[in-house]
Amino acid sequence: MSNNHIASHVEKTLDKGMRYDNRKLLDFRKITLETGVSVNAEGSARVTIGDTEVLAGVKLDLGTPYPDIPDQGVMMVGAELLPMSNPKFEPGPPSIHAIELARVVDRGIRESGTIDTKKLCVKEGEKVWMMLLDLIPINDAGNLMDAFGLAALAALNDTTFPKFDSETEKVDYKEKTDKKLELSKLPIPVTVYKIGKNVIVDPLTDEEEAMDARLTVSSTEDGKLCALQKGGDITLSVEDIKKMIEIGIDKGKELRKVFESAK
Question: CA 39 to CA 27: how far, in whole Å?
Fold first, then answer.
């Protein structure tokens, strides 16, 4: 079946208020969250949303701060889309899709002020903690964006600093301290998709491919909007955007319950 036929069938199904897996339009699949899944990472998490499964890991290293922010540590987010998780993914440099996934997760964390990067400073102008947040899919069955966002937040919340010897300036990764990474906000991304006249959340792969437009809505625990990312070729009206933001914030509360229950 061609992509056009699939999209047409998906849209007709949604018009009847139905989905391929019998969910309602604004229902998520079953979500599970587990932290501490990697012995070697400073923080890690596994998230499943239906058959979609992703891992997030945090590594900390000491480095030299950027000249324009000599008293702040650095956070970098990267996503690697493994071919084993989806036959459409190819090995090699990060694709545009991988770059977007990483940037959307990064933006929600950064714009919400979740991490005070000044607290990552060891010695101003000389030594700061460089934090790398890696995102990897194990199986892509739709909605990597939200799965990555939830896994990233859980991995950061799980992060513990390794032992640092100030005299030798060496890090002992085999020995962790009791110092946790402090999170001041809990940004949760929810991506709302528009397909024809319908809006849905947590799409299956066929539903993702049938989308006209999508809007990723990142919000904090107090319901405040901290980041938006629009995708797709179709223009969204002001009414569409308002509706999708409301849905994103409301569904963010549901995902936050999953996060809180796993803490």
Answer: 34
The fraction of the chain above a pLDDT of 70, given in percent, is: 98
Domain 3-262 has CATH 3.30.230.70: yes
> What are 38-56's pLDDT values in tens digits?
999 999 999 999 999 999 9
Residues 93-110, mean pLDDT to the nearest whole number: 94
For 34, 56, 213, 214, the CA distances from 236, given in Å and listed in that order, are: 36, 31, 7, 9
Going from N- to C-terminal start, the domains of the chain cover 3-262
Q: How far, in Å, CA of 186 to CA of 226, rounded?
A: 10
Q: Residues 6 or more apart from 203 whose CB is under 8 A from it?
A: 142, 143, 193, 211
Place of tokens 């010695």: 123
